Amino acid sequence: MTHLFPIRRDGDRPWLLDLFCCAGGAAMGYNRAGFKVVGIDIAPRPNYPFAFHRADALSFLAELIATGEIRRFAFVHSSPPCQDKCALTVGTNRAMGWGGTHVDLVAPTRRLLEASGLPYVIEQPNGRAEIRKDVTLCGEMFGLGVLRHRNFELGGWGVARPVHPKHRGRVRGWRHGEFFDGPYVAAYGNGGGKPSIPELQAAMGITWTDVREELTEAIPPAFSQWLGTAFLARLRAGAAA
Asked: In terms of C-beta density within 10 A (0-12 exposed, 13-18 middle, 19 or more buried), how is residue 160 classed?
């Protein structure tokens, strides 16, 4: 890998590396905050809205560190696979008698992020993933049609935890044979009164993909825009590590 990325210069948008990027929910928020984003994912992501490299995220990051190319970036976001420790998956596996078949990449991701020397984010859903919950964000904080609780470990920087507002009601859908209505749609799965693709796009604030799997895996852009804006404010104030 030789000079894949241009050198950052004063006045340019800082470069952000988006690891395990999926279809770019986080990327869009960081872009709106003021970053230039490059996504890395092991799967093809034709709907990703910014520069994209198909590669194993951790191998790609390790090579950037080894070659010094990592210095072209200002920040790293990572969303390592979470199915091994996600509360929804763990509960389903237990109920169905399934064994654990998913890989937990949080710890190796953190080791490389720390080796990079850059400020970073590790994102995970509620569950058993072993990350610091420095910030927890919820769709209600941003007036979204999903709750979509996500936890963020902040490496090399920090921000005050926002207040978690009271939810306005239930998530719409079927629960144990009974249908419940509510102001939020369920951004996971495919049955039980789940939203249509247009409903899910509107609730998440994502318009550039209509693939249900990508939508249900995505971080609402409002979450990463909030994080990115907070980081850049600290960077400009000279407070970011």
From this structure: exposed
